[in-house]
Automatic annotation (TrEMBL):
Residues 41-60 are annotated as: Disordered. It is found in: Membrane. This is Proton-coupled amino acid transporter 1-like. Residues 59-459 form the Amino acid transporter transmembrane domain. The lineage of its organism: Eukaryota, Metazoa, Ecdysozoa, Arthropoda, Hexapoda.
């Protein structure tokens, strides 16, 4: 049996590799060819993965909660009035609670499944992609054949989603700055404002660890909460009667609501990265853990913003509620600048995930010399890619709905359910009447339907918007 000193693990935040041999099967690591040999009858109860983590810059519970709030309180919350416009205010309130509970539950089952896999493999940490791979290898034969391809699939969805968030952030910051600049100076195209932002975005993306980002996240959180409070002041002014708004939206538009709300609430890439980097990860889950506290605050804020924003602006609610604020008032312009600063800071946190995936998983082991230089090149290329996409498709509301439906239906709902089924498969531990199996199958179906329908409707609307 290997002890903690004998484990050969490439300790990375996002792309940890876990070479091991289990049940006479050798599973090769993409980075490290050293094998950890395990007995098929090994007792996993005496191994606690949390005690064997050795993070270079671990975050405290408070810092993790701050990052969690900042990672979820981005442009998504400002798009909630537009989302409620698509769903109706009654459906919006109920569905947001349901989606919030669903997202939180799926994150819980993902973290628990990863912990069980780590105990089984006797490794301290597993990334999301490799959790998917090793879980499929334990699952039924009809899915185990796909295990070698699973990391690439998960990484692909994760990178696309995080790059999509970064594109949305660039459009958001540039558009808010443009509205303020147009009021007090010469009118410039939004693309010009994006170009002005390019160098600052590259520089903030050069911050290489979450510990250094914590003070910036604290500042961004403070700015965001103040900005949200000031925005609510505008919303509460001369609120029209609730009877003037629709309680129910159309079924077609509900798919746009679903994509927008899922984009807003689900931050699976950042959350898994945060849990992996915690000093005390055992306090991440639980009824009063970091995840539940953070998600409760987030859902309440999202419902308040969506409900009152829709009551205030109705069908005129735009992709970001800041675009509905009065152009001529100084307070409104201050709100736009505050949110632009907060989202600019958050860009670094969101870009952290695709950079770590691309660099740690696919590039670092192939580069022998000047690794630090090439890592900065990677960070620069990621920023340039999001900049080009933002220039090409500056449709904020539809962008949000598209990436929410396309990526998060899979990453946040379907994949965690698949992983849990496969982890429970060897012991047939699905409970009475196979409850866990049935529940996870329903989650998979729900996620796939949301992916297909939401993506289709968003793409159709994006194409139509260019006509």
């Amino acid at each position: 049996m290997q002890n903690s000193k004998e484990e050969s693990i490439n300790m990375q935040l996002i792309a940890s590799q876990s070479p091991y041999k289990e049940n006479s099967e050798v599973i090769a690591s993409a980075v490290n060819n050293t094998e950890v040999v395990l007995s098929p009858t090994a007792n996993t109860e005496d191994y606690d993965p949390h005690k064997h983590r050795n993070r270079p810059n671990p975050t405290s519970n408070a810092e993790t909660l701050i990052h969690l709030l900042k990672g979820s309180l981005g442009t998504g919350i400002l798009a909630m009035p537009n989302a409620f416009c698509n769903s109706g205010f009654l459906v919006g309130v109920i569905a947001t609670i349901i989606i919030g509970v669903l997202c939180t539950y799926c994150l819980h089952i993902l973290v628990k499944a990863q912990y069980k896999l780590c105990k089984r493999l006797r490794v301290p940490i597993l990334s999301y992609p490799h959790s998917m791979k090793y879980a499929l290898e334990l699952g039924p034969r009809c899915v185990s054949w796909f295990a070698p391809y699973a990391p690439g699939l998960v990484d692909g969805f994760m990178v696309i989603y995080q790059l999509g968030i970064c594109c949305v952030y660039i459009v958001f910051v540039a558009t808010n700055i443009k509205q303020v600049a147009d009021q007090y100076g010469d009118s410039l195209d939004v693309s010009t404002h994006m170009l002005i932002l390019l160098l600052p975005l590259i520089l903030i993306n050069y911050i290489r660890n979450l510990k250094l980002l914590a003070p910036f996240s604290t500042l961004a959180n403070l700015i965001t909460f103040v900005g949200l409070a000031m925005t609510l002041v505008y919303m509460f002014e001369e609120l029209p009667p609730i009877s003037e708004r629709e309680m129910f939206g159309t079924l077609r538009n509900f798919s746009l609501y679903f994509g927008t709300t899922l984009f807003a609430l689900e931050a699976v890439g950042v959350i898994i990265a945060l849990e992996n980097n915690m000093k005390t990860p055992q306090y991440f889950g639980g009824y009063c853990g970091v995840l539940n506290i953070g998600m409760t605050v987030i859902v309440i804020l999202y419902i308040a913003m969506g409900f009152f924003g829709y009551i205030k602006y109705g069908s005129n609610a735009k992709g970001s509620v800041t675009f509905n604020l009065p152009q001529e008032e100084v307070m409104a312009q201050s709100i736009k600048i505050m949110f632009a600063i907060a989202i600019f800071i958050t860009y670094a946190l969101q870009a952290y995930v695709p950079v770590e995936i691309l660099w740690n998983t696919y590039l670092e082991q192939r580069i022998r010399n000047r690794k630090l230089f090439w890592e900065y090149v990677c960070r620069t290329v990621v920023t340039l890619a999001t900049f080009v996409l933002a220039i090409a498709i500056p449709r904020l509301g539809l962008f949000i709905s598209l990436f929410g439906a396309l990526c998060l239906s899979a990453l946040g709902i379907a994949f965690p359910a698949i992983i849990e089924i496969c982890v429970l498969w060897p012991d047939n531990d699905f409970g009475p009447l196979k409850f866990m199996m049935i529940k996870n199958i329903l989650l998979i179906i729900f996620g796939l339907v949301g992916l297909v329908v939401g993506t289709y409707v968003s793409i159709v609307d994006i194409v139509n918007s260019f006509k």
